[in-house]
Amino acid sequence: MKNDYKDFYIGSRAQARSKKRKSNLILNSLIGIVVLLIVIVGANIFFGSDNDEAASDATNPQNNSENIDGGNTDADEEQGEDTEAPAEEETDSPDNGEPAEEETDPAADPSEEGESDSTVDLPQENETIVENSNDPNVKQTFVNPGWQPIGTQQQGDHTKNFSSDSQDWAEMQQAIAVALNTSTSGLTYWCVENGGGEQVIGTVTTKGSANEPYRVYIEWVNGQGWKPVMVQSLVENDKQNSCG
């Protein structure tokens, strides 16, 4: 009986040890899996954050160059340009010695609203001033090499037309106004006469308080329209009572 009991006791202990080893193995395996998961999750969190920051820097290059142009803002704000764009409105006046104003085709003058009080700003940019003149009525002579033909709506062969309702007359007025750096509505056209060849001479005065007289020379350029040639500032309006 002792031997049977001893064998049973030894067998029970062996089974207990076997179960304990299995339990330890399972427990160690679970612990290892948990540790591995912790390592994996931590690595993903750490490296994932670095990758997000790198991607953010790559997609937002301004983060690396912030305020590069900041030093120029003050200078830019201090700079400004004052530009003048006088409106132009065509008015017609027949060359009969009496001032008159008539509306013409707005296409000949791009602006539909004129100025009530016009001033002439002379000399203009890139202008050559010739002061000597044999004409006692001429104070100064202005020539601007930057003057260009004003363009034209006329087609075919050109013939001067001084009729107050003609396109040629409207374009003559506009060229004279361009030479004086103003609008047609800012001038009174006392006389626009044939100057010989392709040239026309207009005598005008500015409206408003100044009321200054000018003699303006323009010439026709084929396919391009009337071009200002010369402006003379006059002592007095010598065409107020007669034209021609």
TrEMBL record:
Domain DUF1510: 143-233
Disordered: annotated span: 54-121
Transmembrane intervals: 25-47
UniProt key word Membrane: yes
Entry-linked InterPro entries: DUF1510
Compositional bias ranges of the Acidic residues kind: 74-118
Keyword terms: Membrane, Transmembrane, Transmembrane helix
Compositionally skewed regions (Polar residues) per UniProt: 57-67
Protein name in the entry: Uncharacterized protein DUF1510
The species this protein was found in: Bacillus oleivorans
